[in-house]
C-alpha cells in the first residue's frame, strides 16, 4: 500500500483553505488504483490557527479581544476527512525537488522527510514586531501579548514605525484603549494619557488607498490622541538598557530623535521562504511563480504557491479567494495527468483584482476604506470589519471549509506546451 500526498506548507489563511479545497475537490476525483491511497498533509509550527487580522485590537486590550477569539485548533476543522487528512506540527527546513520530499523539524525536535505528489507553498509572512506573528505556538504568542500589556500600563509615549493598515489600526486601537473616546464634538482628547505617534515614510498613510481616505484616517487618529509624522523614516530604535522599563530612542531620517516608552516596528512583512532554494525566489524573497497559473516553474512539476509569500499578489486575505481556486484547480489537472499518464487538461487562470480595496478600522467605532474602487463610509467599515475584525463573518467558513464547498465557475484556458513553460506539468 502506498500513499500519494498533497503536501501543504502553512496553516494560516491560504494553507487551511488550500487543504479544504483539496479534500473537497481533488481527492475525490483522483484515479482509483489498487494499493494507492491519497491524503492531504498540512505542516504548521502551531497546532492552532491564528486570526492575525485581529492582532491590533488584542494588542491594545485582551478585554476587547479575548485570546479565545484569536486561536482555533486546526485538526478538528478537518474531522470530516478522517483517514484523508494529516497534520504535522513543525516547520519546513528544506525542499528536495528532485526527490520530491520536504524536510520538517517537528515541535518535539524530530526530523521528518515527507514525500509529496504535489506541493503547495502557503507559508505566509512574518512581521518585524512579534505582536503579529505566530512563530511557534499559542502559548508563546499569548505570553508576548501579556508582556506588551504590562508594558502598556505604564507607557506615556508610543511610537509606531510604518503607516500601512496594521500601523494605522494599531495606533487607533492603542490610543483609544488608553485615552478613551473623545466627546461627541471634540476633535481630540483633552488630557490624553499616552501620546501615540505614527511615522510614515511617505506623504500619506495607507499606500493602497487614495489621499482623501488617508486624510480621513488621520482625523480619526487625532480624535483618539494619535498624531502622524510624514515623509520620515525610522532609522533605528535603541533601548537605553536591558531593564524592562528602559526607554527607547527612535532615530528619524530627518535627524530628529523621539524618546519612547514603547516602539513598535510595523514597517512591512517578510515572507517565510528562507528554507526554499534561492532560484525559486524573486528579488523580494517571495516565491516566484507563473502569475496566471500560480505554478512555481523553477521548482519542477506540481509545485504551487498561494498567499502572501507568492510573487503574484500584492497581499491580503481577500485576494486569496481568487487565487486558491486557481492554484488548486491546476494542481488537480496536473496531478490527474501525472497519475493517469494522460495529457493535462486546460488551465485555470488567476486575474488580480487591482481595484482600490482595503478596510481599516480606527478604534472601536470608526474606520476608513474602499471596496472595488469605491470609498466606503466609516459606519460601513465598522460594520464589516471594525465590529470584531471579521471573526463572526469569516472564521467559521474559513476554518470548516464552507467557503470552498463549490469550486466556482471558470473559463478553461488553452494548455501551454511544457517546452514553452520551461518545465513539465505532468
Automatic annotation (TrEMBL):
SUPFAM superfamilies per the UniProt record, alphabetical: FAD/NAD(P)-binding domain (SSF51905)
Protein name: FAD/NAD(P)-binding domain-containing protein
Domain FAD/NAD(P)-binding: 6-320
Similarity comment: family membership: Belongs to the FAD-dependent oxidoreductase family.
Keywords: FAD, Flavoprotein, Oxidoreductase
Entry keyword annotation includes Repeat: no
Entry-linked InterPro entries: FAD/NAD-bd_sf, FAD/NAD-binding_dom
Source domain of life: Eukaryota
One family name in Pfam for this protein: Pyr_redox_2
Upper classification of the organism: Eukaryota, Fungi, Dikarya, Ascomycota, Pezizomycotina
Amino acid at each position: 500500500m502506498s500513499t500519494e500526498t498533497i503536501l501543504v506548507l502553512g496553516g494560516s489563511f491560504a494553507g487551511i483553505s488550500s487543504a479544504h479545497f483539496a479534500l473537497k475537490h481533488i481527492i475525490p476525483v483522483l484515479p482509483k488504483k489498487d494499493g494507492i491511497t491519497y491524503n492531504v498533509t498540512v505542516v504548521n509550527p502551531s497546532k492552532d490557527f491564528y486570526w492575525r487580522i485581529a492582532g491590533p485590537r488584542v494588542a491594545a486590550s485582551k478585554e476587547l479581544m479575548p485570546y479565545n477569539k484569536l486561536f482555533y485548533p486546526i485538526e478538528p476543522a478537518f474531522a470530516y476527512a478522517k483517514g484523508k487528512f494529516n497534520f504535522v506540527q513543525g516547520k519546513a527546513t528544506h525542499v528536495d525537488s528532485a526527490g520530491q520530499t520536504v524536510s520538517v523539524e517537528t515541535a518535539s525536535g524530530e526530523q521528518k522527510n515527507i514525500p509529496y505528489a504535489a506541493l503547495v507553498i502557503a507559508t505566509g509572512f512574518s512581521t518585524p514586531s512579534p505582536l503579529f506573528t505566530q512563530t511557534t505556538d499559542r502559548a508563546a504568542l499569548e505570553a508576548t501579548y501579556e508582556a506588551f500589556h504590562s508594558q502598556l500600563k505604564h507607557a506615556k509615549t508610543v511610537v509606531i514605525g510604518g503607516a500601512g493598515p496594521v500601523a494605522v489600526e494599531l495606533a487607533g486601537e492603542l490610543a483609544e484603549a488608553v485615552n478613551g473616546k473623545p466627546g461627541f464634538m471634540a476633535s481630540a482628547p483633552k488630557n490624553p494619557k499616552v501620546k501615540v505617534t505614527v511615522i510614515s515614510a511617505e506623504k500619506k498613510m495607507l499606500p493602497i488607498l487614495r489621499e482623501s481616505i488617508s486624510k480621513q484616517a488621520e482625523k480619526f487618529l487625532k480624535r483618539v490622541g494619535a498624531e502622524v509624522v510624514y515623509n520620515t523614516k525610522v532609522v533605528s530604535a535603541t533601548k537605553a538598557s536591558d531593564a524592562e522599563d528602559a526607554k527607547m530612542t527612535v532615530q528619524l531620517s530627518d535627524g530628529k530623535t523621539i524618546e519612547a516608552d514603547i516602539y513598535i516596528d510595523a514597517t512591512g512583512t517578510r515572507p517565510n521562504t528562507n528554507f526554499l532554494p534561492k532560484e525559486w525566489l524573486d528579488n523580494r524573497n517571495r516565491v516566484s511563480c507563473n502569475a496566471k497559473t500560480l505554478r512555481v516553474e523553477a521548482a519542477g512539476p506540481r509545485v504551487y504557491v498561494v498567499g502572501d509569500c507568492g510573487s503574484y499578489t500584492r497581499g491580503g486575505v481577500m485576494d486569496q479567494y481568487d487565487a486558491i481556486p486557481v492554484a488548486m484547480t491546476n494542481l488537480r489537472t496536473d496531478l490527474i495527468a501525472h497519475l493517469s499518464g494522460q495529457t493535462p487538461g486546460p488551465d485555470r487562470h488567476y486575474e488580480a483584482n487591482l481595484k482600490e480595496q482595503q478596510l481599516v478600522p480606527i478604534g472601536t467605532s470608526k474606520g476608513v476604506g474602499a471596496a472595488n474602487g469605491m470609498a466606503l463610509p466609516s459606519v460601513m467599515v465598522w460594520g464589516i470589519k471594525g465590529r470584531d475584525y471579521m471573526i463572526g463573518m469569516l472564521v467559521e467558513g474559513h476554518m470548516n471549509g464552507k467557503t470552498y464547498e463549490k469550486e466556482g465557475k471558470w473559463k478553461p484556458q488553452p494548455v501551454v506546451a511544457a517546452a514553452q513553460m520551461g518545465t513539465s506539468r505532468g
